[in-house]
Amino acid sequence: MFKKSRRKIVAAILSVLVLLLFGTFCVIYLASYVDMTNENRKLLEQYVEKYSLLKATDIGSDNMEWPNGIPDHPRTNPPRWELSTFYSVAISKNGQVLHVDTADISTFDDASLMELASKIIQSGKKQGVENNLIYRVADKGSYILVAFLDNTVMLENAGTLINYTLIFGGIALVLLFFLARFLANRIVAPLEESYKRQKQFISDAGHELKTPVAVVNANLDLLSREIGENQWLSNIQYENERMSALISQLLDLARTENVMPQMETVDLSRLVYGEMLPFETVAYENGLSLNSNIADNICIYGNSVQLKQLTSILLDNAIRHSANGKEVGLTLKEEKNNAILSVVNDGEEFPPEQRQYLFERFYRTDAARTGEDKHYGLGLAIAKAIAMTHKGTISVACYDGKVEFLVKLPLQNRNCKN
Questions:
Q1: Residue 234 has pLDDT above 50, yes or no
Q2: Can you give the pTM of this predicted structure?
């Protein structure tokens, strides 16, 4: 129980931290990427605005000069202008390539830039990203300019940032995992200690109470012989028997929770069938029929005494709580490497808010009942403890006016056939 609590606490702490780290890194990365992209677009816009292909004022003269296509820029330009790589392709309105600027870098040749520029113009887009190049298309009057800004360095920096984020994030998560385990142990330790003391108190109190109950019972027998039948002695005898039953159940619960029983290969089919036989008479006396469907040779690894107790608790509970029913059904079968023990009876449906408490100690659905039938709400708690000791589970389901208690126990690999 506490191991599961530790795992849940560790998972909760790590989930919160992972979300915080992941969210923080994503915000930082996206903010950096958007900021750098916007800055590059602004640089590209400045480049386009200052670009001048012709130095001659007369476009139609024969003395036109074709400069290098890189605009003159004043010293007021930002430092990144000098560190950025620009490419451009100027194309006339009739589709003639007027000038190609590769910035004297071998990354892109004239033909590659011309092909890329034609593709962009045909697409009709005015700006975007293509082949790690931010581009912008501008109508410069007598020609169309397709300008590019190399975005490779920014993308490489972003990739480096992601790699370092993953490396240091992974290291941080490992450290945080050990921190979460330490915190989980610190959180659960007081609860675990309190739970152990509670179980030890129940065990000690049960053992201590057995002696006075036995003494009272012996004295009652002596007084009965001395004075004969007496109403007050009968009342004392009745309450003493109730006290004895409660102590016995408390000790059973403490023993089940605190002591690991001796385990062995058990033929659960034979055990359940043998435990069911005495309850056929009990069911008949209560106007019920006990119907069973028990598969053969279902073998598990467990303690036969506790498994018999588990079966009897479920059958006794079903018979006592059959509300105007006619039958109680018991089924044992194999399903997905589990032995499934099911006990079904007719009865009122438990409200959903009550089902989670059915297996708690001393919990009773009918608060008016106070143990006059020598049942104190410990039976299902004992059944749950036995199921957990055998690495299984127990649950309750309500449907069509029936109540079903379902126990799942892991199967034993070895065959238990004699």
A1: yes
A2: 0.52
Taking the CA atoms of 240, 241, 243 and 248 in sequence, report the sign of the dihedral they define.
Answer: positive
pLDDT tens-digit map of 95-128 = 888 888 877 776 778 888 888 888 888 888 888 8
DSSP string of 99-122, one letter each residue: EEE-TT-TTS-HHHHHHHHHHHHH
For residue 268, which amino acid is it? L
CA distance 133 to 214: 94
Q: What angle do CA 321, 322, 324 make, to 5 degrees?
A: 130
Tokens of 23: 């969210």
Q: Which ranges of 228-267 does DSSP label H, i.e. alpha helix?
A: 231-258
In this structure, the number of other CB atoms found within 10 A of the CB of residue 165 comes to: 18
Type of residue at 168: F
Alpha helices in 330-415 (DSSP H): 352-355, 379-389
Distance CA 355, CA 310 (A): 19
Question: Which of 386, 65, 114 has its CA nearest to residue 257?
Answer: 386
Q: Strand order of the sheet with strand 338-346?
A: 289-294, 327-335, 338-346, 402-410, 393-399
- Reported as type and span, the H/E element at residue 410 is strand 402-410
Residues 275, 277, 278, 281, CA torsion sign: positive
Please choose, from the candidates 372, 362, 374, 329, the residue with its C-alpha nearest in 3D space to the C-alpha of residue 347: 329
